[in-house]
Write a structure and sequence with these properties.
Elements: H1 2-7, H2 9-29, E1 31-32, H3 40-63, H4 68-89, E2 93-94, H5 101-134, H6 139-142, H7 157-166, E3 174-180, H8 183-190, H9 192-208, E4 215-220, E5 223-228, H10 233-248, E6 252-253, E7 259-260, E8 264-270, H11 277-289, E9 296-297
Parallel strand pairs: 8-9
Antiparallel strand pairs: 1-2, 3-5, 3-8, 4-5, 6-7
Helix pairs in contact: 2-4, 3-4, 4-5, 8-9
Bound molecules: guanosine-5'-triphosphate.
The site of guanosine-5'-triphosphate (GTP) has 15 residues, from β3, α8 and α9.
Transmembrane segments: 12-29, 41-62, 69-88, 108-124
InterPro entries: Diguanylate_Cyclase (IPR050469), GGDEF_dom (IPR000160), Nucleotide_cyclase (IPR029787), Rev_trsase/Diguanyl_cyclase (IPR043128)
GO molecular function: diguanylate cyclase activity
């Protein structure tokens, strides 16, 4: 989180400079209120809201990439925070008429911040729609983060097992296993980090070539599994062949800038009710071993 916050230091610097400036000016010109004149309910309400706004701002900065939406959300929350903070501070001080920033921060910064935040949320909504479209193949996984493979951000093997049962009504249901050829030597030659990048990029290529209803999971290492609901044998073979071609034509760029081409082995099984998820996965893995070089349907 600290790394991510470092990327936003300019926005944070602006907000904290304004905050610091207002605080110093308050202390310089203001006169401390006697203890009994302080409205503690206001202090708790306004101070608590200011702290909550600052925490929201840091959470957004710590979790979002650089860009216009992040800028709008942060600055919106930042100005709202400043207004709320000033509200809380002036509970402790009598401020003279010359303290022009007091009404300015209280009455202008809040609506200005709300305006920026609203505009930012509108663009966030549009950005989210675009991301949803892009990630349709992973949609179900995104509702179940604990099943997510941290490297490729698709479902893991345990999620696959669960989904075989969940989707079992969507007959005919096909389970397809895919394995990259020569991944161990690739790792040895180009390094594990480059291997990780290859796995991530292969995931993207596979997702781009699947239908919205298909579910891609990372079964293990360089092995992927796909659940294809409402899919007949011919259709499954066609999709398998398209995936094989897509991976064969994907020019992965190694760290030294050279193109490296991959190939896949594919195995498929029909998910019949009478077989358990484990049995189906075993059968798909066996079909995969038989793939020399075309996909087999068991
Ligand atoms: N970079 C990287 N490598 C991984 C990861 N998980 C497993 N591996 C490696 O993947 C390799 C899988 O080995 P194999 O199953 O023999 O793969 P292969 O060389 O393609 O052999 P075949 O599958 O028989 O074609 C091993 O070297 C593992 O160390 C990972 O998350 N990242």
């Amino acid at each position: 989180m600290l790394d991510t916050l470092a990327h936003h230091r300019r926005k944070l610097a602006l907000i904290f400079t304004l905050l610091w400036g207002a605080l110093m000016a308050n202390l310089w010109l203001g006169e401390a209120k006697p203890w009994h004149d302080i409205d503690w309910l206001d202090v708790v309400g306004e101070g608590g809201s200011a702290i909550a706004l600052a925490v929201w701002m840091l959470l957004i900065l710590g979790s979002r990439p650089l860009g216009r939406v992040t800028d709008l959300l942060t600055l919106g929350l930042g100005f709202m925070f400043l207004a709320m903070w000033q509200d809380a501070v002036d509970e402790f001080l009598y401020l003279p008429a010359e303290a022009f920033w007091n009404p300015l921060l209280e009455s202008v910064a809040m609506p200005f911040g709300i305006g920026l935040l609203t505009y930012g949320l509108f663009h966030w909504h549009r950005e989210q729609l675009a991301i949803n479209r892009q990630l349709r193949g992973r949609e179900q996984v995104f509702r179940e983060h604990r099943w997510l493979d941290p490297l490729t951000h698709i479902g893991r093997a345990d999620y696959l097992k669960q989904q075989i049962i969940t989707l079992s009504e969507q007959q005919p249901l096909v389970l397809m296993m895919l394995d990259l050829n020569g991944f161990a030597p690739f790792n040895r030659r180009f390094g594990h980090r480059c291997g990780d990048r290859l796995l991530r990029e292969v995931t993207e290529v596979l997702l781009l070539n699947l239908r919205h209803t298909d579910l891609l999971c990372r079964y293990a290492g360089d092995r992927f599994a796909i659940l294809l609901p409402f899919t007949e044998q011919l259709e499954a073979r066609r999709i398998g062949e398209e995936l094989r071609q897509a991976i064969a034509h994907f020019a992965f760029k190694t760290d030294d800038g050279h193109s490296h081409f991959q190939s896949l082995r594919i195995g498929m099984v029909y998910c019949h009710h009478e077989r358990s998820a484990e049995q189906l996965i075993t059968a798909a893995n066996q079909a995969l071993q038989l793939d020399q070089p075309r996909a087999k349907v068991a």
